[in-house]
């Protein structure tokens, strides 16, 4: 039994996992923090980048409504900026790393 638990643990550990900052979790709650971390993963060194709500839903397991709701929370706290551009129109994101750093240091 212990061997099968170890194998399962190892198998799950090899898959992608999410490490979350506790301060962000306490301030914004689990859903907004998950949305933020997912956006950070999509950023790939670009200042502005786009990812669809559908893609975020697939990656986070959150509903489209939850993605939109938590995007508003992150914008309200000035952690992200968004703008629509292109044809067809796409929603682009910019993550404000300095705000995240300040919040994780000060807890505000």
What does this structure look like?
It is a single chain. By secondary structure, the protein is α+β, with helices and mostly antiparallel strands. The chain has one domain (22-106): Winged helix-like DNA-binding domain superfamily/Winged helix DNA-binding domain (Arc Repressor Mutant, subunit A, Orthogonal Bundle), CATH 1.10.10.10. The protein has 5 helices and 3 strands; from the N terminus they run H-H-E-H-H-E-E-H. Strands 1-3-2 form a 3-stranded antiparallel beta sheet. Helix 2 crosses helix 4 (64-76). It starts with a helix and ends with a helix. The model has no long low-confidence stretch (mean pLDDT 87).
TL;DR of this structure?
This protein is an alpha+beta fold.
What is the element layout, followed by pairings?
Blueprint: H1 2-14, H2 22-43, E1 49-50, H3 53-60, H4 64-76, E2 80-85, E3 90-95, H5 97-106
Antiparallel strand pairs: 1-3, 2-3
Features:
single chain, Arc Repressor Mutant, subunit A, three-stranded antiparallel beta sheet, 5 helices, globular
- CATH domain class: Mainly Alpha
- Proportion of helical residues: 55-70%
CATH superfamily: Winged helix-like DNA-binding domain superfamily/Winged helix DNA-binding domain
Q: How would you sum up the global shape?
A: globular
Mean pLDDT: 87
CATH architecture: Orthogonal Bundle
Radius of gyration: 16 Å
**Structural class of the secondary structure composition?**
alpha+beta
């Amino acid at each position: 039994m212990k061997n099968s638990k170890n194998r399962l643990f190892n198998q799950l550990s090899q898959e992608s996992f999410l490490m979350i900052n506790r301060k962000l979790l306490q301030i914004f709650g689990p859903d907004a923090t998950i949305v933020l971390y997912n956006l950070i993963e999509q950023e790939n060194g670009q200042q502005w980048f786009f990812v669809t709500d559908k893609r975020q839903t697939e990656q986070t397991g959150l509903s489209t409504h939850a993605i939109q709701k938590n995007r508003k929370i992150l914008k309200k706290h000035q952690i992200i900026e968004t703008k629509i551009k292109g044809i067809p129109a796409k929603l682009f994101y910019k993550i404000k790393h300095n705000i995240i750093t300040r919040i994780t240091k000060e807890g505000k």
